[in-house]
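User: Here's a chain of 223 residues. Predict its fold as tokens.
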Amino acid sequence: GQSLLLTDLMVGITRMREYKLIHREKFHSLLVTLLTFIKNVSMEINTSSLFAQSDVFPTLIPILRRKQEAYDKDIESQIIQCMYYLCRLSRKRQEKAAKAGLVPYLQRCVSEGALVQQFALGILCDLAHTSTKVREILWGNQCFDFYLSIIDPTNEKHHWRVTALKSISAWFSADCDRIQRSLVTPQALNKIVALFSDAQKAEFEIVVGELLVMMHKSSVFIK
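Assistant: Prediction complete.
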């Protein structure tokens, strides 16, 4: 049924990639249509689990590799949204996506201010809560510094600051020794103090709660 259809779609897209058809003009609309269909299916909670039987992550993520002038933002938009809907409720799928190489493409979306950067930020912040393996991938892609950059008071993405702090706190709890060394630098502490000072009432309790968790975990952080 639907699972077999998704598997067939993944096979078809893989063939398009292998034969270098993806960025040819006459195949462009076909690929965007296929990706839009896959995205729409992934949005439904009852059907997103069907992707577990397909190779959606190793099939779609390599398409995000930049192809110079032929690189297409429509394709990026559909794939990033698809990744968001597949990853939002499943730690297992989050780990599969990270292992398939999604993290640097999410970072690229954010750094370039892509239209889908909100979806990319949502995934990136969730990944810190996923697993040890995923956090190793995040570390290898300098994502701790990325979270700190979101917390920075000069960053325009103000409404993501508390979410980024929660990601840091989760990572701190899971890997205290490594994270505390990076967190107690003057630059990092200044950003956290600024967040604490600027937090509005609705956010203040969350910020205090996350800071208390980290203080309880590490005496170094308290000092």
